[in-house]
Each structure stands twice: as structure tokens, then as C-alpha cells.
Amino acid sequence: MKKLLTYSISLLALAPGTFAQTKTAYTAPIYRELPLGAIQPSGWLRNQLVIMRNGTSGHLDEVYKKVKQDNGWLGGKGDGWEETPYWLDGALPLAYLLDDKTLQEKVLRYVNWTLDHQRPSGYFGPLTKAEREQHITLDAQHAADGEDWWPKMVMLKVLQQYYTATKDPRVLPFMTRYFHYQLQALKTAPLGKWTEWATSRGIENVMIAQWLYTKTHDAKLLQLAELLESQSFAWTSWMGNRDWMISTTTYRDMDDWMKRHAVNVAMGLKAPAINYQRTGNKNYLHNLQTGWHDLMTVHGLPMGIFSGDEDLNGNDPTQGVELCAIVEAMYSLENIIGITGEVPYMDALEKMAFNALPTQTTDDYNNKQYFQVANQVQISRGVFDFSLPFNREMCNVLGMRSGYTCCLANMHQGWTKFTQHLWYTTAGNGIAALAYAPNRLTVKAGKDSTAVTINEVTSYPFEEQVRFELSMPKAAAFPFQLRIPGWCKEATLLLNGQPLQHAKGGEIATVNRTWKNGDQLSLQLPMEITTTVWGRNSRSVERGPLVYALKLSEKWEKGTDAEEGDYLSVYPEGAWNYALLRASVEKPAEQLQFSTVKPAGNDFIWNLEHAPLQITAPAKRLPGWEAVNGVAYQPVTDRNGFYKGKTDSTIQKITLVPYGCTKVRIVAFPVAE
Fold first, then answer.
1. DSSP type of residue 2
2. 91 and 409 in contact (C-beta within 8 Å)?
3. What's the farthest any 2 CA atoms get from each other in the chain?
4. CA separation for the pair 303, 541 (Å, rounded)
5. For residue 320, which of 306, 329, 307 has the smallest C-alpha distance?
6. I need a surface site. Which of 125, 201, 449, 650 has the fewest CB within 10 A?
7. CA distance 389 to 371
């Protein structure tokens, strides 16, 4: 049984219009997040973060004019909107994950300015126009003279992470003052006063208010959370009643487009879980399950993310997805995992991280695609099949400033927050490994809070074994939980080299014992080749958490746009118009051959050169399958999913590599008999 902390709260006249009195039952999460810095990346994951530190993640304030010049979050008249907080939301955890003092000093300039320049009322953020020009004192009575709530929500996430890393005593009183101000100010300046961004993303505000509640038990914070939710998009009910999902399949026009905006949806995913946490209403978890299922059924793509270019745009493999949608969906899943403890969301997080995320940036992390495409046969200027193609045709290229620059600032949280959420703590002072990658954990466990260090040795997702090496000054008893992915039929756990137990896929395995210094726990996760069905009766090849795509040689070209600067295009060298064979789809374990090409060592980079694994498959070319304006529209199949048009008579062997290592590819294949 989960322990319920129950508080009755009367909500009287907190919002415009009707707002009924509500009783709130705060429900503790199944798994609790660890402080920033408790998990230190190693192996290939550390190399990824070092690349980011050396690239735009560590230097955006030096290379991007909007953040660099007269920044509003340092008291200037420059950027006071979302992009500086977005950057800090990834750069600050990066600084502490790598224990990089130089980067810490850089990001703390913004943190310190924000903490040191809170108004007496509790309002914070860049100086407003009213403050500068009219010398207005911002308080709840003058809330309408403030500025948009949305950027502050992102900065609150930054401050939350900073607090978990440092326990800076300024942070909790700062947040308390702001939230007390907000509770009053929302009566005259509701979330939607300035833009719809705040109403569409209000759950970010709710989340931090509830996090602060766990620290201070201030009942006003739950009042605020209820008020914020009442003024925000109703993601929790929308995801459960299915009318919203139906509406996303109809029109791509300006009516209600914010309800279809993929980044808003990605943030809204966690709303049912966050609201369940406050209320204890289990129907919200059912809504979440329904909404996630429907979203991935109607709009899901093989690499584990839903389409969103910018609108939700169906499950055709020619659809794209915005980079911001990926990192925000990952962060939502990381929160959902802690609250619900449900394995399918853990599997979904890994699939996004190991497939959708790495392909959308260059090796040096200095350029990104605004939209990636599942079946992407060229990266170039064009309008493609996007719902928001842009006149300048720059959505698909790899550039620092191509497309909207929100992704340039926001992409940094993907890998950093994934690293932060490899581990959680459990009831009984236990620990839980819920996603896997090389790292080192430092934690206090057991009833005596014994200091425990666990070195997680693995090149997962590129190998089947994860080894945990425990170090501690004395023996300690605590539960050690491990996720067994749903794609694994049966896992094997070994203790100090000896078989310990078996566990079925889709479960959490628990080893509850007295652990000793030098113990080693190994998890073996057999990976089988499977094929999965996606839009337009296409098939994808998967093995474990990785999706495999056609390996194509790449021809890179550099260009320059007068407004958006330098960019890179990528074209395939060689044929891409292949179909898998029916026999391969029906019996993939027999027809497809897996091999390890090279180890994924400490120097691993997500590109073709470093691709450590491959699968070979028999295939036939479809001579009639050609790109139209850069788009490889899916060939038509019959009801059984088979292509009936002309195919080459010759069967060829094609090579598939992990999707995240590709730039141009086919991942959703037609099937020929």
C-alpha cells in the first residue's frame, strides 16, 4: 500500500467563473528522483555529454546572438523569453553531471541574478517594460503590468534542479514567495492573459508547485496547483475522453492549433500523472494510459515518438517530428515513471532516447534539425510533407538557427535529464534502476542510510548485459529493483557470477538482501529480432530497445541562408527503395542476421562510422518507388500489408544499422512477396 498524505483544502473564488470546492489527497510517487549529481555518466554516455559541453550546450551564450547580447535574465533588455531558460534547463544539469566548475560558474550567473532580483511581492524574472518605463512596483494588485507566465515556468525547473544539486537555502523561500504572489495574481492576470503558451503548458507550473509542497507542506501550494490546472489546457480529461484525439486527425488549419502542437502535447502528457499525484484520483492514470495508447496508435512513428511537424500529423512514415517534442516527451515520461512506476513508460523513454533523439543533431552537437522524418531519403531545403513547412524551406536541414530556434536552446535537456533519471529511490530506502546506460551512482540506502556507490558497467543498448558493482563501507540491507523491459521474454539475474533468479519481461524485479562491499549483480536481457507494424502497413525491424534502419552512404553539402545562416544538407549515395520480403517479416529470427561490428566504447558517437551493430536482410527493390520533392511517399499495399506492384526479380542483401546512427534512411519498409 502506498502511504497517502491527505489534506483537505477549500478552494474559494480562486478563479474567474465557476470553480467548485475540492478536496485534495496528495499521493507520494512510487519512485523518487535523486539529487542532481548523484548519477555520474560514464562510457559512451559520458562522451555524449562531453561533446555537448564542448558544443552549443556549453557555449550557447557565446555563439547565439539572442542569448549572448544584453540578456534579460542578467538584467539587460535582451532575451527575456523562453530561450535562455530553455538553455539553462539543459546546461545547468550538464554542468553538475560532468562536475564542470567552469560551466557551473557560467550558468550560476543567471541563477544568482534571478535569485537576487526577486521583487518584494515575489514576482521574478527580467525587468518588465512597466518597471523600466513607468517605475511600477510589481505586486498582486499590479499583476497585469507583469509579463508572460510561461518563461518563468522553465526557469522554475532550472531552480529546482539547482536546489537538488546544491541545497542552496535561497531557493525554497524564493519559490514560496513567488507562488504566494502567483496565487493572488492569477485572479487578475490569469495564465492566458498574455499568450496561450502559458495555458497550454500550465502543467509545468503545477509540477514545480507540487514539488515545493513535498519540501514545505505549505497547503497554499496545492491551492495554487488546483487554480493553475483550472486555467490550463485540460490535457487530463482530453486524453481520457478521446474526442480530442479524434479532433487531431481532421484539419491542419489555424483553429485550435495549439491543442495539436506537438511540443504542447509532449508537455501535456504528464498532466494526468501530476494531477493524480495531487488528487489521488486513479481515473487520471486511466486517462493517461488511454491517451498514450491513442497518441501512438494514431500518430506514432517507428522511432518511438509521435509525429509533430508542428501539428500532430498522423502515422505516415513521411511525417516529421520537432526536436523539442522529443526532449519534452522524454521529460514527461521521466516524471510519469516516478509517479506511476509502470514499465511501459520506461520502455517508451528508452526507445525515444536511443532512436529518435540522437539522429537529429550533428556529431559535434552544434547543428540540429527542426523536423526529422522517419523515412528520410534526403535532408535538404524543401516543404516536404510537414503541417508547417515555412516559406524559407529550412525546417529539415541541419543548422544552428534553421527552423525555429527554440530547439537550439531546448535540445540540451534530452540527454542530461535522461542521465538524471537512470535511477530512482524506493520505499524502504531502496534503489531502482529503471533505464540502463553506463554510469556511476552514489546514494544512501538501507535503514542506516549507508553510503553506497554502484558502478553500472555496460555498453547497453548495444549489448545484452548490465553489470552493477557495489561498493560500501559496511553491509547494508535494502531492496534493489530492476526494470525488465517489455521486449525481453525472460531476463536472468546473477549475483557474484551465480544464477539468482529469472524475471519476465514487463515487470520490476526486486532483489531484497543484505548487500556487501564488492557484490556484483548482473542483469542479462536477451534481445531478439522482431518486426513491428507502422503506418501504411509498413514494417520496421527492432532488436531490444533499438530500431534498425537502412544503412546508406551519405553525401554532405554545406549551404548558407541569408536569414538563418549556415546549414548542412545530406543526400543518400546508392539505392534506398527496398522492400523487405514476406518471409523476413513472418520469421525474422530465421531470415535476418544480427552481428556485432565493433564495441561501443568510450569514444562512441551516434553516426555511421561508429555504428556497433548491424542486421542483414534479404530485400527487393521497387523501381516505381521514387522520391517526389524529397518525400518518399509510402507504396500502396493490400489489406494483408503486401506490395502488389512491380519489383526487381533479384533478391539483394541490405544492411540495417541502429536508427540513431543514421541521417538518411528507410526505417518503415514496404513488404514484397
1. P
2. no
3. 79
4. 11
5. 307
6. 650
7. 10
Give the cell for residue 31. 519512485
Chain centroid, CA 219 distance in Å: 31
Residue of 238, 182, 236, 196 lying closest to 15 (CA atoms): 182
Q: Give, rounded to a whole angstrom, the gap between the first and last alpha carbons of the chain.
A: 53
Output the CA–CA distances (angstroms, integers) from residue 405 to 322, 371, 397, 402, in the order listed. 11, 12, 13, 7
- Cα–Cα distance measured from residue 106 to residue 88, given in angstroms and rounded to the nearest whole number: 10
Return the residue matching grid coordinates 512597466: 130
Angle at 401 between CA 400 and CA 404, to 5 degrees: 130
Do the Cβ atoms of 348 and 435 come closer than 8 Å? no
The length of the chain is: 673
Q: What is the pLDDT of residues 525-540, one digit of tens each?
A: 999 999 999 999 999 9
Question: Hey, CA dihedral for 9, 12, 15, 21, is it positive or negative?
Answer: positive
**Rounded distance between C-alpha atoms, residue 359 and residue 174, angstroms:** 39
Place of cell 536546489: 163
**Residue 310: cis peptide before it, omega within 30 degrees of 0:** yes
Nearest to 385 by CA among 398, 403, 368, 371: 371
The torsion angles phi and psi of 449, rounded to 5 degrees, stand at 50, 55
pLDDT in tens, 464-501: 999 999 999 999 999 999 999 999 999 999 999 999 99
Q: How far is CA 293 from CA 269, 287, 300, 314, 618, in A?
A: 11, 10, 9, 14, 32
**pTM, rounded to two decimals:** 0.96
For residues 42 and 50, what is the distance between their CA atoms, to the nearest angstrom? 10
Q: What is the pLDDT of residues 135-163, one digit of tens each?
A: 999 999 999 999 999 999 999 999 999 99
For residue 388, which of 245, 246, 262 has the smallest C-alpha distance? 262
Per-position DSSP letters for 405-441, written without gaps between them:
THHHHHTTHHHHHHHHTSEEEETTTEEEE-S--SEEE
Q: Are 583 and 642 in contact (CB under 8 A)?
A: no
How far is Cα 633 from Cα 316, in angstroms, rounded to an integer?
8
CB 661 within 8 Å of CB 611: yes
2 alpha carbon, distance to own chain's centre = 27
Helix (H, G, I), strand (E, B) or coil at 154: helix
Closest C-alpha among 406, 88, 417 to residue 263:
406
For residues 461 and 545, the answer to whether their CB atoms sit within 8 Å is yes
pLDDT in tens, 580-591: 999 999 999 999
Torsion angles phi and psi, residue 40, rounded to 5: -115, 125
Query: Is 669 in contact with 539 (CB distance < 8 Å)?
Result: yes
List the grid coordinates of 121: 511581492
255 pLDDT band (50/70/90 cuts)?
confident
Cβ contacts of 10 within 8 Å, gap of 6 or more: 21
- Among 229, 246, 151, which Cα is nearest to 186's? 229
Listed residue (514, 521, 515, 520) closest to 492, CA to CA = 521
453 residue type, one letter: T
Contacts of 404 (CB under 8 A, 6+ apart): 370
Q: For the chain, what is the radius of gyration of the CA atoms?
A: 25
